[in-house]
Specification:
The complex is a heterodimer. Chain A starts with a helix and ends in an 18-residue tail after the last helix. Chain A has 2 domains: about 170 residues, D-Maltodextrin-Binding Protein, domain 2 (3-Layer(aba) Sandwich), CATH 3.40.190.150; about 120 residues, Periplasmic binding protein-like II (D-Maltodextrin-Binding Protein, domain 2, 3-Layer(aba) Sandwich), CATH 3.40.190. Chain A is α/β, with parallel strands linked by helices. Chain A is built from 11 helices and 11 strands. In chain A, the strands form 3 sheets. In chain A, strands 2-1-3-10-4-11 form a 6-stranded mixed β-sheet, sandwiched between helices. In chain A, strands 8-5-9 form a 3-stranded antiparallel β-sheet, with helices on both faces. By secondary structure, chain B is mainly α. Chain B has a two-stranded antiparallel ribbon with strand order 1-2. In chain B, a hairpin with a 6-residue loop joins β1 and β2. Chain B is globular and about 60 Å long. Classes of the chains: A alpha/beta, B mainly alpha.
């Protein structure tokens, strides 16, 4: 019985790979989105994919597979055939799985099809917070140890990286961290006064800042954002941040290593063109994301650099479960 | 003037009206199938309606939302499997009605009351959205925690004959809800180093197993008894019935709107709290609760449909989702080039009024589709058990699989179905288990947030409760409801009101 089953499966695989070799794409493509419906990864992927479908001439069926900080989706794609019919649509998190003890796979097991865009972190405060900019916040924290409430989203999330950066530059930060499920709920809590400060991605806070329901303290980048030019960069308060910036979460599409080159090339071409569509560019601009649209070796270099910087930052802040060294991730500059 | 024109857009454009109708129709049937959720349908629609204009896309989504929330009650009444979490409370009294041959009446009441609740929700959205969203935003973690506690006290209403068994069942539910990787600290809880347990137990799988499979197994005991004939005399409830339940439905609709507007709580919790409220305020139900009380249908159905309008309140005024479906709709608005946020109402007020108009249209279509085809539906319960039982099992398996496309969820579902069957057999109530699973994280996460925020200082925590009117009101409600379930209550009542209280029923 088991043999018959295995036979059927391998027959299926053979026929699938023959089909793939002949003319990719010959059937529906599965797109596994690492994060839940309605989130930023989901929105970006659902916005870009219909354009890519037109170029590919095939349907990409999108599906949200959530859980385990995205590890469930990653493992699902890693377990699928390397035939180009299963895409992983993810964010930056997998690059920290190893040091965070969340899994033994990361993007080095995958071939990047396209790194679409990156976000910029921004530090925002509730509109009733007793400070108006980054310098005022630092002063207030020093004067009131433990009283300022920072929102967080668990180790490895954007807030934890930004906080690690602040501690690396300014020294120990005596604040209270209140954990939330994601930046959406945390920013809601910020507007309701349940927390005081939140390191968030620009796109999630942009509308609140425009409407005055939250105060921007500093943009975590070396140059001001196009969408909010009046918000000062954090390097204008402290030059020390320049060593870590620019840094930000990103969104990318991946296939398993070993996928036929023809499929990788076709997918890469399709998504590169899709990422240039005006509607998609509008969406990125409105949500405060920066277009990257890179693939191949450029994308690989970006991933490696991102992983080195971030993993060591987290490790030095004492937030990791294992040293990056154990996985051959060299300290930046070494 | 512009507002009225925008409100009427959906009624004057035949294509939009048709899309709302199609959406509502599809929603009723998607909602009726356990596992196929409105959330799923709406997120698929995002890709599907990608190239459309924003109005038709939103019209279709709103139709599905409204129809889907209502549709969950169908299977809850007919088969005791809630089609959606928001219909759990509906099964408590709806299914007993179907077993008496009153499925037609139950669906009729449910439909009319859903329409009523939906209408109240839309009305509040239209006239008081900014006010309600400010109120919803003022909920602090400790208030969410107290709200969850209030919900957990519902155990008393759901326990049936033995409160002690109910408390144990509720605690089991809370423990099931805690399994998995804790999203706040990334610590594994109750996982015993099994990777399988890391993702936690799918709540929908527990729900389908406990209600659907255990029901099918329990039915096996009566496989030879003939099916109950359904008498379809009156589907549309009489005006007298509606008027009698008007005060209750107004109260439960209010509960629905507020819970729906709170970010982080939705129709499921609204319906359960409303059900509990009905049990408390209804002095003389025609039939006891749990055995087919009309009030037990009126309360959850008004509340969960009122929660739809409620969920749009923070979405339209602040760009904050009121529940999972509105979270996806916000994504859809982004894709269509709009910027949902506090400025949306100012920049694009016509969008707000269009949404209100589409909701009104969807509500009418829901009434229409709900009241037609009931005869056909009630035939389901008249089927011989030898057909019905496999059908329930099939539906349960498909439903459990569809949630995450995961076969593991099917095993969980079957496991909990077996557990549920034995619990039933030995007189353990199942309602509290589901209640525990639903409220576990709401309670646990917010308790931790609340206590962490005050630097783990109990004194400051209670000071916070005492100095905030909202927290104080919730706290008082928790204490009073808790005391009302202890013998102390009767004693205090007798002392305070003398013999009068004794004579009162």
């Amino acid at each position: 019985m088991k043999n018959a089953f295995l036979g059927a499966v391998s027959a299926l695989i053979v026929s699938a790979s023959v089909a793939a070799a002949q003319d990719y794409p010959a059937k529906e493509i599965q797109g596994i989105i690492q994060w839940g419906a309605g989130g930023s990864t989901d929105t970006v992927m659902r916005a870009v994919t219909p354009h890519a479908e037109k170029v590919l001439g095939a349907t990409v069926v999108l599906q949200n597979v959530t859980g385990g900080v995205g590890a469930i989706a990653l493992n699902q794609v890693a377990a699928a055939e390397a035939d180009g019919y299963t895409l992983l649509m993810g964010a930056e998190n997998p690059l920290l799985y190893k040091v965070m003890g969340l899994g033994d796979k990361d993007y080095s097991d995958f071939t990047p099809i396209n790194l679409l865009a990156r976000g910029t972190p921004i530090l925002v405060a509730g509109k009733d917070a007793p400070f108006d900019d980054y310098a005022g916040m630092m002063e207030h924290i020093r004067a009131n140890p433990g009283e300022v409430r920072f929102g967080s989203t668990g180790p490895g999330g954007l807030p934890s990286v930004v906080t690690a950066m602040i501690q690396a530059v300014e020294g120990e930060l005596d604040v209270t961290f209140v954990p939330y499920d994601g930046d959406g709920p945390a920013l809601t809590a910020l507007q309701g006064g349940a927390i005081d400060v939140m390191p968030a991605v620009l796109g999630a806070s942009i509308e609140g800042i425009r409407a005055g329901t939250m105060k921007p303290l500093a943009l975590f980048d070396v140059t001001p954002a196009e969408a909010l030019p009046e918000v000062p960069t954090v390097t204008s308060f402290n030059e020390g941040y320049a060593a870590y910036l620019p840094w930000g979460p990103f969104f990318g599409i991946f296939v398993r290593n070993g996928t036929p080159e023809d499929a990788v090339a076709k997918l890469t071409a399709a998504y590169a063109e899709a990422a240039q569509q005006p509607e998609f560019l509008d969406l990125l601009r409105n949500r405060g994301f920066t277009l990257m649209n890179i693939s191949g070796d450029e994308a690989r270099a970006f991933l490696a650099d991102w992983q080195r910087k971030t993993a060591w930052l987290m490790h030095d802040a004492g937030l990791t479960k294992a040293s990056p060294e154990d996985f051959g991730i060299a300290r930046p500059g070494e | 003037m512009d507002a009225i024109a925008a409100f009427l857009t959906v009624f004057t454009d035949l294509e939009l009206l048709l899309l709302v109708a199609v959406g509502t129709f599809a929603g009723v049937y998607i909602g009726a199938i356990p596992g196929l959720s409105v959330t799923m349908a709406v997120s698929i629609l995002i890709s599907f309606t990608f190239s459309w204009d924003v109005y038709p896309a939103i019209a279709l989504m709103i139709g599905i939302f409204m129809g889907g929330v209502y549709g969950g009650s169908r299977t809850a009444i007919l088969l005791n499997i809630p089609g959606a979490p928001s219909a759990i409370a509906t099964a408590m009294d709806g299914y007993p009605m179907a077993r008496r041959g009153e499925a037609g009446t139950a669906i009729g009441i449910t439909t009319v009351m859903s329409f009523f609740g939906g209408f109240i929700g839309i009305l509040v959205l239209a006239v008081a959205a900014p006010l309600v969203s400010d109120f919803a935003l003022s909920f602090q973690p400790r208030d969410y925690m107290l709200l969850a506690l209030l919900g957990i006290l519902l155990v008393g209403s759901l326990s049936g004959e033995s409160l002690v068994k109910g408390i144990f069942a509720g605690a089991l539910g809370i423990a099931i809800g805690a399994v998995g990787m804790d999203p706040l600290t990334f610590t594994e809880r109750f996982t015993f180093d099994q990777p399988l347990l890391r993702q936690g137990v799918s709540f929908i799988a527990v729900m389908i197993g406990m209600f659907g499979v255990s029901e099918a197994l329990a039915q096996l005991h009566h496989v030879d008894t003939p099916a109950i004939r359904q008498k379809i005399t009156r589907i549309v409830p009489s005006f007298g019935t509606i008027r009698r339940h008007l005060p209750l439905s107004l109260q439960t609709s209010t509960i629905g709107v507020v819970i729906g507007a709170l970010p982080g709580t939705g129709g499921d919790i609204a319906a359960l709290l409303a059900y509990d409220h009905a049990r408390r305020v209804t002095k003389k139900p025609e039939r006891p609760f749990g055995q087919g009380a009309i009030e037990g249908l009126v309360a959850p159905e008004t509340a969960n449909n009122a929660a739809v309008g409620g969920a749009f309140i923070p979405m339209m005024t602040l760009g904050i989702p009121g529940d999972a479906v509105t979270a996806i709709m916000i994504g859809a608005l982004f894709i269509h080039g709009l910027n949902p946020g506090p400025m949306l109402m100012i920049d694009r007020p016509e969008m707000f009024w269009f949404v209100v108009g589409a909701l009104v249209a969807a509500n009418f279509f829901m009434l229409l589709f709900g009241l037609t085809g009931i005869r056909l539906f009630t035939r389901i319960v008249e089927m011989p058990r030898a057909v019905l039982i496999p059908l329930i099992l099939l539906l349960s398996i498909v439903g459990a699989y569809a949630v995450n496309n995961s076969i593991t969820d099917v095993y969980w579902m079957l496991g909990f179905g077996l557990l549920g069957y034995f619990m039933r057999l030995y007189g353990w109530p199942l309602g509290p288990v589901i209640l525990g699973v639903i409220l576990s994280r709401l309670f646990d996460d917010n308790w931790r947030r609340a206590i962490i925020s005050v630097r783990e200082d109990f004194g400051r925590f209670f000071w916070g409760i005492l100095t905030s009117p909202l927290s104080l009101a919730l706290f008082t409600a928790v204490v009073l409801i808790f005391l009302s379930q202890t013998p102390l209550w009767g004693w205090a009542k007798a002392r305070l009101f003398g013999r009068g209280a004794e004579d009162a029923p």
